[in-house]
Amino acid sequence: MKEFHKINLLYDFYGSLLTERQQNFIELYYGDDLSLGEIAEQFDVTRQAVHDTLKRAEQTLGTYEEKLGLVDKFSKEYRSIEEALHLIQRYQTGLEPDGLEKTKEILESILKNRQEF
Amino acid sequence: MKEFHKINLLYDFYGSLLTERQQNFIELYYGDDLSLGEIAEQFDVTRQAVHDTLKRAEQTLGTYEEKLGLVDKFSKEYRSIEEALHLIQRYQTGLEPDGLEKTKEILESILKNRQEF
C-alpha cells in the first residue's frame, strides 16, 4: 500500500484522536496536497515544525493501528464485500452458477469474524 | 442496547487502549461474570478500587466511541450484511424476486459509505 493512501486510511479511522493542529496539518498535506513550506507559511511556523508535527501525527496513527488493527480488519472486509458483489453479478449473467452460495459464505464469514472480534 | 452488551462491544473495539489492569477487570467482570468482591480478593485491593477502575475504564471506552464512532458504524453494517444474507435466501426460495437487486444495493451502499468515511 502506498504511504499516501495508507496515511489517509489511518486518518479516516483514527484522525479524531489527534490534536487539532495535527489534524489541520494532515488534512492540508495529505488531503489538499499543500507543501510543507505552504503549511509553514499559513501557520507562521518553520518548515521543520510542520515536518515534525506531521511525523508525530503519523506515528500516533500507526500506534493506534498497531493496537487496534481496525484498518487492516475492515480493509479485508471491504475486499470481501466487493467480491460478493462481483459474484452476484456473475451469477446473474450465468457465468457463476455457484455465485449465490459463494456470496452467502462470504457474508456469513464476515458476520462470524465480527462476533469473534 | 443493554449496558452489558454495549460494554462488551466497546471493549472488543477499543479494549487494547486501556491499561492492563483495566483490561483484566473488564474481562473478569463483564466476560467471566465475577463479582466486584471476587475481583477485589483476587487482586488484593478493595471492592471500591475495583468499582472505580471499572468506571474509569467504561468512561474511557465511551470517550473513544464518542470520538471515533466505529462501534455504531460497524453495528449498522453488521445489520445490513444480515439483511443482505436474508434477501439472498428469500430470493433463492422464490419469496423475493427483487432480492438480488436489493442485496447489491445494500452491499454497494456499504462500500460507498466506507469511501466517504
Description:
The structure is a homodimer of 117-residue chains. With 117 residues, chain A is mostly helical. Chain A folds into two domains: 66 residues, Arc Repressor Mutant, subunit A, CATH 1.10.10.10; 46 residues, no CATH class. Chain A is 81% helix and 0% strand. Chain A contains six helices and no strands. In chain A, helix 1 crosses helix 4 and helix 2 packs across helix 4. At the A-B interface, helix 1, helix 4, helix 5 and helix 6 of A face helix 1, helix 4, helix 5 and helix 6 of B.
Helix content of chain A: over 70%
The largest chain-to-chain contact, stated as pair and per-chain residue counts, equals: A-B, 28 and 28 residues
The tally of domains of chain A stands at 2
Shape of chain A: elongated
Subunit arrangement of the protein = homodimer
- Can you write the helix and strand succession of chain A as a string? HHHHHH
> What is the terminal-to-terminal distance of chain A?
24 Å
CATH architecture of the largest domain in chain A: Orthogonal Bundle
Please give the CATH class of the largest domain in chain A.
Answer: Mainly Alpha
GO molecular function, one term (chains A, B): DNA binding
Function (chains A, B): Might take part in the signal recognition particle (SRP) pathway. This is inferred from the conservation of its genetic proximity to ftsY/ffh. May be a regulatory protein.
Pfam family, one (chains A, B): UPF0122
InterPro entries (chains A, B): RNA_pol_sigma_r3/r4-like, UPF0122, UPF0122_fam_protein, WH-like_DNA-bd_sf
